[in-house]
Amino acid sequence: MNRTKGDEEEYWNSSKFKAFTFDDEDDELSQLKESKRAVNSLRDFVDDEDDDDLERVSWSGEPVGSKTRPGSFQSLSDALSDIPAKSYAPELGRPKGEYRDYSNDWSPSDTVWRLRKGKVCSLERFRSLQDKLRLLEEAVSVHDGNVITAVLIFLKRTLSKEILFRELEVRQVALRHLIHFLKEIGDQKLLLDLFRFLDRTEELALSHYREHLNIQDPEKRKEFLKTCIGLPFSAEDSAHIQDHYTLLERQIIIEANDRHLESAGQTEIFRKHPRKASILNMPLVTTLFYSCFYHYTEAEGTFSSPVNLKKTFKIPDKQYVLTALAARAKLRAWHDVDALFTTKNWLGYTKKRAPIGFHRVVEILHKNSAPVQILQEYVNLVEDVDTKLNLATKFKCHDVVIDTCRDLKDRQQLLAYRSKVDKGSAEEEKIDAILNSSQIRWKN
Amino acid sequence: MFVMWFTSLHFRKFTPRLCFLVRPRIKNMRYVAGLVNADKLAGRTRKYKVIFSPQKFHACEMVLEEEGVYGDVSCDEWAFSLLPLDVDLLSMELPEFFRDYFLEGDQRWINTAVQALHLLSTLYGPFPNCYGIGRCTKMSYELWRKLEEEEDGETKGRRPEIGHLFLLDRDVDFVTALCSQVVYEGLVDDTFRIKCGSVDFGPEVTSSDRSLKVLLNAEDKVFNEIRNEHFSNVFGFLSQKARNLQAQYDRRRGMDIKQMKNFVSQELKGLKQEHRLLSVHIGACESIMKKKTKQDFQELIKTEHALLEGFNIRESTSYIEEHIDRQVSPIESLRLMCLLSLTENGLIPKDYRSLKTQYLQSYGPEHLLTFSNLRRAGLLTEQAPGDTLTAVESKVSKLVTDKAAGKITDAFSSLAKRSNFRAISKKLNLIPRVDGEYDLKVPRDMAYVFSGAYVPLSCRLIEQVLERRSWQGLDEVVRLLNCSELAFTDMTKEDKASSESLRLILVVFLGGCTFSEISALRFLGREKGYRFIFLTTAVTNSARLMEAMSEVKA
C-alpha cells in the first residue's frame, strides 16, 4: 500500500462516515484492530471506480453526463444546467437507497473474516450473482466449513434452486457442504432435487431409502420400502432393496401368527421356549435361525418354514446348514443334526457331508453341550488329522484320540495321552491293548 | 466428552433457568427450540442459556432464528480446545471430526483444530520446522498460518520450545487404525473403551460386584510401566511385580515395633496403592485373555497379518466370509472387510458382491447404507475394471460428456483415494524381514506394536521425514499416497531453538490416532532421542472408526 501517513491520519480522524457498531463482547484491542482493518479497506470503496456508468438521457435523447460519483450530487445539477432543452422529464438516476452505506459495506474477504470470527454479519448486500459467487469463493478459500455453510445458507435463501444448483455443480467443496447441511436440517425435498439435478441417481435412491430408518411402525415401514423398489439403485442394490421389502413383509406375517400361537398356549415349542423378542426388523440369518428353531418341520408352502426362506432369499447351502445346525443344536435335537449331514449316495449308502467343515460343526455342538458320543462322531469326520487330534483332545473324545494315534503310529503321543485318561477306565485298557499289540509298527 | 442427556426433562420443581452445554449441532438446536416453544405454549417463563462448545456455528443460529427462539435464548461459547489426557497426549475430544470430514467432506472442524494448534503455538511456539501430509493437513496449515499472520507479533522473537511440528490426516493411513491392537493400552481401549483418559472396569475385572472407574495415565505407576508393552510381556511383568509386592509385605514379619511403625507410616500406603493398581491391571489382563480366547483371537491376528503381508488372500477372504456367516460381530466383520479392501486396493467385484450380500443377510439389510458410506470414504471399495478415473477427470467428464458415461465414476470418487498399500509397504519396508523369532521382550523396531508383523505406516512416515528433515527421497511414496505433502523450515526460528527443544516433536493427527501409534512413536523417541507430544482430534480405534461409518446403530 502506498498511502502516506497523513492520509491514514485523515481517514482515522475523519468523521464523514457513520460510526461503526461492534459487538459488546469485543475487548479494546480487537476493536481497535478491527477498526483499523475496516478503515484500511474503505480505501477500496472510495477509490473504486464505480461499477455502472450512468447514462443520462435528456429530453432530446442525447446522452449527457458520463460518470457519477456516489454521494455527490454536483454532477447531476451540472449536467442539468448544460441541457438546453426546456421541459424536464423525470431523470433516470440511481435509486436513493442504493447509495453506499459505509457502515455495512464489507468486501467479501472482510465479510468472510467477520464470519470466521463468529460475528453477526448481514450478507444482504451481496445481491448480484457475481457478488454472491465471489463471497462463496472467498469462503471456500479459507477452508472454514462453518463460514462456507453460513454463506450457503444465505445463497439458499436468496437464489432459486436451479441457479444455486447450477453454480454449485462446478464447485465441489461448496457442494459437499450444502449436501451435508441439507442432510442435517432434514430438508429431504431439496436434497433429492439436488441429486436429481446432478444426475446422482444412486445417491438419490440411497437418500430416499435412508428415510425408512425414521419409520417405526412395521406396516408403514413396509409400505415405504415398497416405494423404494423402483428407485435407480445399481442392479445388485435393487435386489437387496427388494429382499428387504420381502423380508419385512414375511416377518410381519410370521410375527402376527406366532404371537397368536404363543398366546393360545397350545404349541409346545412356544411353551417350552418362550420368545424373547419380536422377529420384526431382524436380519435374514436371524430370521432363518428363528424359523429353524420354531418352525423346523413345516412344509415349504408356509411363510415361516425354513425351506421357504431358503428358496425365497436364495440362501446358500453353507449359511443354511450353519444356521439350521445352530438352531437344532440349541434345542438338543441331535437327530435333526444328523439328518442335516446325512446324504444317500447313488448306491444307497448313507454318508455324512457338510458344506462348512466338520470342525465348525464340532465347535457348535460343543457350544451347545452336546453329549460326548455325538461330539465324538463328528470329530471323527474332521478331515485334517491335526485339527481332528486337537479337537478330540480339547473335547475329551478319548476314542478318537486313541484311534488317531494308532493310525498315525505315534506311540509317544499315545503314551502321553494315557496319563490323561482316568485310571482303570475302559480307555486306559484300550490304550494298553493297542500299545501291547504286536501288529502295529510304531514310528516312535 | 460433553454429554447432554436429552431425555425428557420433567422437572419435579419448576426451575426458572435452564442452561445447555452442547455441541453446535442442528439436532441439539431443534431440541432446545422444542423445549422453549413448549414452555411458551404452556405459559411458562424461563431464562435459557446455551453454551456452545467449542464454538457456535452459524447454522445453529439460523435454526434458532427459524424456530422463533433466537431472542429467548442467550448464547455463549466455551472455547474448550484441548484436554490433556496425559503428560504427552492432548486431545481435542472431537471424535465427530472423522465422520464430518472424511465421510461428508465438511470442513467445519478445521477452524477448531487450527485454534488448538494456535493455542499451543502461542504457548510454546513458534515451530521452526513444519511437516505434514494430507489434504486436510494442507488446509489446516494454510488457515493456521493465516491466523498467525493476522495475530502477528504474539510469537515473534520467542525462543521455540518445540522444534518440529508434524501434521497428518487419518486417511493417509487407514490400515494402522483398523488393525487389532496388542500393546496393553491399545488392548484395554479395544476391549473396555477408554474415554477421556479413564476406563470403567466392570465386576469381571474387579472381582467384586462393583465397577471401578480408573484413571489411566502416567501417574498410575503400574500402568505406566506396562502401557506400551506387547501384551505377551504384561502378564509376566505383573506377576513378577505381585511377587515383589508380596515379598515387601512379608518383610513386616521380622520387624520390631520401631521398624513396624516406620513401615506403616512410610511404606504401607504406597504398597497398598501399588497393590490396588496391580490387582486392577491383573484383573484386566485376565478379562482380556478370557475374551480373546473366546473370540479365537489367534486366528484373527493370523488373518490380519496375512492381509498385511499379502499372503493367503483367498484364505483370508474365506475367513472373513465365515466370520460374517457366523454373525460374530457387525463391527468386526466390517473392519476385516475394510482391511482386505485397503491392503488389496479394493475387493474383486465377485468378492465385493458376495461379501456384501452375506453381510446384509447376517447383520441387516439396512447396512446397504453403511456400505455406501464406506465406499465414499474409500474404506471398502470394489476394484474397477481398468483404472479408476481421478476426481478431476470424473468432474470434467460429467460436464463434457454424456451424463450416462459420468455415472460410472460418480461423485463417490471425489473424496476417496486409491490405496496402493502394497507398493507403499514395499517402498517403506513396513513388513520386517525376520530371521528366526521376533523378540517381543526386547523390541528392535516399531513393528513390535503389531507383534513384529507390521510397522505402522503413519509412524514410519514420521520417522523418515524427521530423519531426512524433508520429504526428499520420498516422492514416490507421496505420489502413491495420492495427497500433498508440506515441509517448511524457518531457519531464523531454528537458530533460536535450543538443542533440547529441537528434539521435541509435536505430532498432530487430524481424524484421530490409536494407542498403538502412540506406543510406536514413544518407542521411536526412546531409540532416536526424540520426545513426542501428541495432539489428536480424538483418540480412536478400529471399532470407533467403523461405528462412525455405520449408518445404522450396530
UniProtKB/TrEMBL annotation, chain A:
Q: Which Gene3D superfamilies match?
A: Vps16, C-terminal region
User: Which InterPro entries does this chain map to?
Assistant: Spe-39, Vps16_C, Vps16_C_sf
Task: Domain (Vps16 C-terminal): give its ranges.
Answer: 129-228, 308-433
Q: Which residue ranges are recorded for the region named Disordered?
A: 49-73
Q: Where in the cell is it found?
A: Cytoplasmic vesicle; Early endosome; Late endosome
GO annotation, cellular component aspect: early endosome; late endosome; vesicle tethering complex
Signal in keyword set = no
Q: Which UniProt keywords apply?
A: Cytoplasmic vesicle, Endosome
Instruction: Write out the GO biological process terms.
Output: intracellular protein transport; vacuolar transport
Q: Which domain of life is it from?
A: Eukaryota
Q: Main localisation, per the record?
A: cytoplasm
Alphabetical list of PANTHER family matching this protein: DEFECTIVE SPERMATOGENESIS PROTEIN 39, SPERMATOGENESIS-DEFECTIVE PROTEIN 39 HOMOLOG
What is the protein named?
A: Spermatogenesis-defective protein 39 homolog
Species this chain originates from: Leptonychotes weddellii (Weddell seal)
The organism that produces this protein has a lineage beginning with: Eukaryota, Metazoa, Chordata, Craniata, Vertebrata
TrEMBL record, chain B:
What Gene3D superfamilies does its record include? Answer: 1.25.40.850, 3.40.50.1910, 3.40.50.2060, Syntaxin Binding Protein 1, Chain A, domain 2
Q: How does it sit in the membrane?
A: Peripheral membrane protein
One GO term under biological process is: protein transport
**SUPFAM superfamilies in alphabetical order:** Sec1/munc18-like (SM) proteins
**Primary location:** cytoplasm
Alphabetized UniProt keyword annotations: Protein transport, Transport
Q: Which domain of life is it from?
A: Eukaryota
Protein localization: Cytoplasmic vesicle, Clathrin-coated vesicle; Late endosome membrane; Lysosome membrane
The record, for InterPro entries, names:
Sec-1-like_dom1, Sec-1-like_dom3a, Sec1-like, Sec1-like_dom2, Sec1-like_sf, VPS33_dom3b
Annotated GO CC locations: clathrin-coated vesicle; late endosome membrane; lysosomal membrane
**To which protein family does this belong?**
Belongs to the STXBP/unc-18/SEC1 family.
| Name recorded for this polypeptide | Vacuolar protein sorting-associated protein 33B isoform X2
